[in-house]
Amino acid sequence: MADETFDLVGSLERVRRRDQVAARELVEHLYPLVIRIVRSRLPRRVAEEDLAQDIFLKMFTRLEQYQGNVPFTHWVSRIAVTTCIDQLRAQKRRPEFRWADLSENEAEVLDNVLSDPTAEAPGDTLAAQELVDRLLEQLSPRDRTVIQLLDLEQKTVAEIAELTGWGQSMIKVRAFRARRKLQKLFQELQAQEKP
User: Fold this and answer.
1) How far apart are CA 58 and CA 66, in angstroms?
2) pLDDT band, very low/low/confident/very high, at 68 (cuts 50, 70, 90)
3) Of 33, 59, 114, 143, whose Cβ has the fewest other Cβ atoms within 10 Å?
4) Is the full-model pTM beyond 0.90?
5) Angle at which helices 104-115 and 124-137 cross, to 10°
6) Distance (Å, rounded) from C-alpha 69 to C-alpha 56?
7) Residues 83, 51 contacting (CB under 8 angstroms)
8) Which CATH class is domain 8-93?
9) What CA–CA distance (Å, rounded) separates 146 from 8?
10) Selecting from 3.50.50.60, 3.40.190.150, 1.10.10.10, 3.40.50.300, what CATH number does the domain 99-193 have?
11) What is d(CA 84, CA 40) in angstroms, rounded to the nearest whole number?
12) pLDDT band at 126 (very low <50, low <70, confident <90, very high)
């Protein structure tokens, strides 16, 4: 993918002298590498072009830090991977689940449930399962485990305690809190759907 005739060393020298043409050529040369990294680690709800732009911005602002100890493409790759990981961490700290994140089928199922909770079309089962999975993804791994075991697999609190090694009271409290989180997520989706 890389252009073998590209003079990376010369381009870096010109970029350090604030040559805009050299900077544009450097971005064009590195773009396939950066976009491949972004696409393999793309956080949800983040446009790949925006993330790539952030990576190039960091690369240019930190160019003076590049010492030449490693190949330049490795250095840029590290910036790209770190930027993607930082985005994923930020997303985990502030999880957000929006109506726009739903597939067309999931949105239709949710809309049907909101308009008539007793109605269920034959094709809604799979979409409903996908919606439940999406909502469960928003929970912490422990909360998700408790809800899956208790509510979806219909295990008793004693069975879950035996499987996980957690105390029964902890399981009950965790299940209560997890259900409240799910209810809040569902209510947020309802609020987004209403005009």
Assistant:
1) 12
2) confident
3) 114
4) no
5) 100
6) 20
7) yes
8) mainly alpha
9) 54
10) 1.10.10.10
11) 9
12) low
